[in-house]
Amino acid sequence: MSEEQGKNEVSINLQYIKDMSLEVPHAPEIFAKITTPPQIGVDLNIDAQKLNDDQFEVTLNMRINARVAEEPLFIFELSYAAACTVKIPDENKEPVLYIEIPRMLFPYARQIISSNLAEAGLPPLMLTPVDFAAVYKAKKEQQAASKVAN
Questions:
Q1: pLDDT at position 106, please?
Q2: What per-residue confidence (pLDDT) applies to 148?
Q3: Which domains occur in the chain, in start order?
Q4: 0.70 exceeded by pTM
Q5: Rounded distance, CA 97 to CA 103, Å?
Q6: Contact yes or no for 64/44 (Cβ under 8 A)
Q7: Backbone conformation region of residue 84, classed left if phi is above 0, alpha if psi is from -120 to 50, else beta
Q8: C-alpha to C-alpha distances, 80 to 26, 52, 58, 129, nearest whole angstrom
Q9: How far apart are CA 60 and CA 49, in angstroms?
Q10: How do residues 4-30 score in pLDDT, each as one tens digit?
Q11: How far is residue 142's CA from residue 107's CA, in Å, rounded to a whole number?
């Protein structure tokens, strides 16, 4: 192993909820209208910011909208973050920050969402795994398209 390889490190130092909100705007009347599974919409965004030389904060921002009988059932917003140490070559940092670390955080965010919805008396929701590589690729393509448009 070379000396350079020995210095590489990717670790999550701390995980935390930055912000969380659950709204059930039409409770309790809406509960009587749940006769079929709700229509679910999920928006996911990933932010990464440098804290210092090798320290970064990576945040999963999720917004879940559920509708039943054309009315809002619930709106759940979660910003789940991690403080990370990323000591790798610069050309590899972005994929680690936007693919690998979110992949590690997602199961915890999914559990927080599931638990809170159950405690609110809402139907169970188990989010399917996310292909963070595809999310990253789509973001890069969108950035490239907006540069061409400008």
A1: 98
A2: 82
A3: 3-137 (3.10.420.10)
A4: yes
A5: 10
A6: no
A7: beta
A8: 26, 20, 8, 16
A9: 12
A10: 555 789 999 999 999 999 999 999 999
A11: 26
Average pLDDT, the chain: 92
Q: What is the pLDDT of residue 2?
A: 45
Integer CA distances (angstroms), 79 to 91, 106, 107, 111, in order: 27, 11, 14, 13
**CA end-to-end distance (rounded Å), the chain:** 46
pLDDT in tens, 77-88: 999 999 999 999
Q: What is the 3-state secondary structure (H, E, C) of the chain?
A: CCHHHHCCEEEEEEEEEEEEEEECCCCCHHHHHCCCCCEEEEEEEEEEEEEECCEEEEEEEEEEEEEECCEEEEEEEEEEEEEEEEECCHHHHHHHHHHHHHHHHHHHHHHHHHHHHHHCCCCCCCCCCCCHHHHHHHHHHHHHHHHHHC
How far apart, in whole angstroms, are the C-alpha atoms of residue 118 and residue 20? 15
Residue 3 has pLDDT above 70, yes or no: no
Please list the residues that pair with 46 across neighbouring strands.
Answer: 60
- State the Cα–Cα distance between residues 11 and 84, nearest whole angstrom: 6
So what's the pLDDT on residue 6? 58
